[in-house]
Amino acid sequence: MSSPPLLRGAPARTDLTGTGLDERRPDAHGPDAAELADITGRIREHIVAMCAGPEGGHLGGSMSLVEILSVLYFRVMRHDPRFPGLPERDVLLLSKGHGGIALFATLCEAGYFPAEDLDEYARPGSHLMAHPHPEIAGVEIASGSLGHGLALGVGYALANRLDGSARRCFVVMGDGELQEGSVWEAASVASAHRLNSLTAIVDRNGLQITGGTESVNSLEPLADRWRAFGWRVVEADGHDAEALTSALTLPADLDRPTVIIAHTVKGKGVPFIEGQAKSHYARLSGRQHQRALNAVRASAGTPAGGDRR
Amino acid sequence: MTTAPAPAPARAAREVYRDTVAELLPGEPRLVVLDSDTGLFGGVDFGSAADRYLNLGIAEHTLMGTAAGLAREGRIPLVNTMAAFASSRAVEAVKIDIAMGNLPVLIAATHSGVSAGHLGPTHHALEDLAVMRALPHMTVVVPGDAAGTEDLLRQALTLGGPVYFRLGRGATPDLPAGPPVRLGKAQQLRHGTDITLAACGPYPVLAALEAADLLESEGITANVLHLHTVKPLDTPALLSSLGVRDTVITVEEHWSSGGFGSAVAEALSAVRPVRVHRMALPDEFVPVAGSQRYLLERGGVSARAIAERARASLDSRRGGIR
Fold it and tell me: ipTM score of the complex?
């Protein structure tokens, strides 16, 4: 029987020298509260700018994600924008792909690509579309069809275990997304396999396209649902960076995966659309863009009317 | 007229798959087997590599997504499920999570076609070739027998991209010896000059060979091509088998829409005007119980029906209907 040369061995461990990753997992580190607020302010500015572009964008569910993503990329995750595919990195899977522009803005601020690239969002030929895909530096998976990310996270976490690695995998989901049955299929598998390197984060802003999640297809009691599926549940204010930092750096000493239910406000930072289902997708006029920018800058303590960057 | 009985079944392709994987896994650290409660494997089958056998339970979407996550982290997952579930229930995860990333995941889909027999239409997979070959990056392989299963599996694992590996349920007969089985290459099992029979899948290939026997007794000689790789299709072999002729009969265990015959028609029509007659199951859910072979013959995928179609086609050509 023919037996062609089959497979190479497992990937070699990468020399971490010069990658910006420590061999030892750091505790929460990175910018202090004021520095992080500056970063989240800039991310929000990027998001509203993209929503003022020719196609508009998913404004509400992107604004609700800003602290979650900035805490992950600037304080919690081990990653290096110079080496997006580094095997030792922690990974983020944005399962709620309609938060794509929040991810792009965060990756930009983290150094994965220059801010000029964001100006190309949704323009013909740009890699930056409304939903993420792995052609974009720092993006792990294609998402946007909901209910996929957690299963992929199970795969990453199983790979970590097989590698004997301490890497972590974070899966960010929308709350409306939890109406997809595949989420619970994967949640069940994750706890059955005791994947304690896996952390899910639910952006619990309470709204989906057609209204409140509780009126469309109720999710409560949400924490109990996750507990019933064998997960450790932590609830946090999803706009409180310190609370999120604490939740995301809890020791993974339990024999089960963790879910952070992050209570957020859809459209956070833009008063005229905050907490409204209609913020789901917006194409901001020039005037609306300026109003949104002013509000974001006011809350971030940045003078209004300054240069965007 | 009755057709000759098929040769005795030898081994089930899915058992050959199982044994080959069990042999490969301990020595190939990148391989991971993901199961969905199929019962095909037990962790003990893999000895020291048992930690790389993971049964995720009855969760086909998660099976595909998990495979994609593992593949993105450098592993080569083999996933086990039934063809009906791989190609319908889990197909969005196959499309977005696996195919889009061109990830090295081998989907071992058992119970394909009507091989599930009396298990009924929920367990028949007569759309899977159409679905899977529609996906970019996907290689689609249908082994013809036990030996071909092992050869093609070993070759498929070196591809570095997604593979849909279509297997049946029960044992099927061995095909007659032919040229070596090479992924992406047609196997010419018989030479003839009057018509080409292009077949895919164990019983369709056997039926084509049997039809060639019937035709030969009437003075008609047929080329019989075994195309175990539906995508990429070996178009050059099909073209060279045509020679100056212009007729191909395709034979498959699939609905007539979008499957192997459609692939052949698409490929040949781009090059020259060719008549492609598709012998496939009719456009209906199979409403009765029966063995794989019974259901195929009932649906018109039989040696006799192929021979009749060949005669009719050659007669019409002689009659100047062209």
Answer: 0.90
To probe the interface with A, which of B35, B37, B56, B155 has the most A CB atoms within 10 Å? B56
What CA–CA distances, in Å, run from A195 to A159, A191, A245?
Answer: 10, 6, 21
CA–CA distance, B187 with B167 (Å, rounded to integer) = 18
The secondary structure of A59-121, three-state, reads HHHHHCCHHHHHHHHHHHCCCCCCCCCCCCCCEEEECCHHHHHHHHHHHHHHCCCCHHHHHCC
Shortest Cα distance, chain A CAs vs residue B263, angstroms: 28
A-chain CB neighbours of B96 within 8 Å are 142, 145, 148
User: What are the residues facing A260 on neighbouring strands?
Assistant: A201, A234
Q: Is B287 helix (H, G, I), strand (E, B) or coil?
A: coil
Neighbour-count burial for A265-286, b at 16+ CB within 10 Å, e otherwise: bbbbbbeebbeebebbbbebee
Q: What is the DSSP secondary structure assignment for residue B51, as one 8-state letter?
A: G
Q: Which single residue is written with the structure tokens 């999803």?
A: A238
Q: Provide the shortest C-alpha distance from residue A3 to chain B (in Å).
A: 7
Taking the C-alpha atoms of residue A153 and residue B97, their distance in angstroms, rounded to an integer, is 12
How would you write the pLDDT of chain B (322 residues) with one tens digit per residue? Answer: 444 555 677 899 999 999 999 999 999 999 999 999 999 998 788 999 999 999 999 999 999 999 999 999 999 999 999 999 999 999 999 999 999 999 999 999 999 999 999 999 999 999 999 999 999 999 999 999 999 999 999 999 999 999 999 999 999 999 999 999 999 999 999 999 999 999 999 999 999 999 999 999 999 999 999 999 999 999 999 999 986 678 999 999 999 999 999 999 999 999 989 999 999 999 999 989 999 999 999 999 999 999 999 999 988 876 544 4
Residue A4 to residue B100, Cβ atoms within 8 A = no
